[in-house]
Structures are given as structure tokens and as C-alpha cells.
Amino acid sequence: MADTFTLKLLLLECFQAQELNGDEIYIKLDGRVIWTWKTHHDRFSHDTSRPHTIDKLDFADARKHGADGWQDAGIDPQAFVFNGLSGSAVLEVWDADTLTRDDLIGRAPVRAADGGHGAIAVVIQGDGAYYRLTYEVIS
Ligand SMILES: [Ca+2]
């Protein structure tokens, strides 16, 4: 089949959180939530001195980085490998808010043509937040 590809999520890094207590991040692929802070109780922040905050989530090696260094993230790397995508896909990084509408921090379009380029890192930036999402496309 032409133009089908596999997306492998590798890493999400926070360089500037939007909120003081850390961002309640969730990630969507084509509108479907594929990872959420709700399940893992980790907020993202550049300042990991705050409780339950991480600045890196390594999907490929199932580990997260916080004040105590790298730790087991309790995830299955295979859950972040998406086979049989066709045409193009969109990754979105959101911050959940209790009292106001959730914020879309940014999005990354993923295409079959990205295949074979190794790890691709995109800046996810918006609403004062600055993240980097790294993934690989295999086509
Ligand atoms: Ca929030």
C-alpha cells in the first residue's frame, strides 16, 4: 500500500511550562488521546523541584526525568508505535485546564515523506509554553 507509514513517538521535553505548578499535558494523534498526565500524575515543567513534575518523557525507553533523575515511566513503548497510518497525521500537545478551556500548545504534522530521516524534533510552542517533541517516521 502506498503512503502508509509508522509513527514512533520518542521523546517529549519541556523547556518552559505555561503554569507555575506544571502543565497538565496530554498528547493527541489525529484527535485521539494517546498519553495523558491524568493516568500518570506527572505534570510537565522546566522546574522539576516541584512535586510530581517531570521535564522529559522518553517514550522509546519507557522512562521519565524529574528531580530524582531518570525513573521508570510505567509505559509500554509499543503503545507509542502507530502502524498503518496513511496520508498524513497530526500530533497535538495540549494543556488541560480546570476552569478554562484546554490550551492547544502546538501541533506537528506528520507525513509519510518524513520517513527515513531518523529522529525528527519539532518545537511545540504556544501560550508561553515551549516544548520539543521527537518522533520517527518509518515508511
Ligand atoms: Ca493546565
Q: How does this model look, in words?
A:
The chain is mostly beta strands. The chain has one domain (4-138): C2 domain (Immunoglobulin-like), CATH 2.60.40.150. Helix content is 3%, strand content 58%. It is built from 1 helix and 12 strands; from the N terminus they run βββαβββββββββ. It has one helix at 37-40, and strands at residues 4-16, 25-29, 32-36, 43-44, 53-58, 63-66, 69-72, 81-86, 88-95, 103-111, 119-126, 129-138. The strands form 2 sheets. Strands 1, 4, 5, 6, 7, 8, 11 and 12 form an 8-stranded mixed beta sheet that branches. Strands 3-2-9-10 form a 4-stranded antiparallel beta sheet. Strand 11 (119-126) and strand 12 form a beta hairpin. It is globular, with a radius of gyration of 15 Å. The mean pLDDT is 94. Calcium ion (CA) binds next to loops.
DSSP helix count?
1
Shape: globular
CATH topology: Immunoglobulin-like
Any ligands, ions or cofactors bound here, and which?
Answer: calcium ion
Name the CATH superfamily classification.
C2 domain
User: What's the number of structural domains?
Assistant: 1
Portion of residues in beta strands equals over 45%
Poorly predicted regions: none
Tell me the major beta sheet: 8 strands, mixed
Tell me how many strands there are.
Answer: 12
Order of helices and strands: EEEHEEEEEEEEE
Helix content: under 10%
Measured between the Cα atoms of the first and last residue, the distance is 10 Å
What is the residue-averaged pLDDT?
A: 94
CATH class: Mainly Beta
Query: What is the correct CATH architecture?
Result: Sandwich
The structure class reads mainly beta
Alpha-carbon Rg, integer? 15 Å
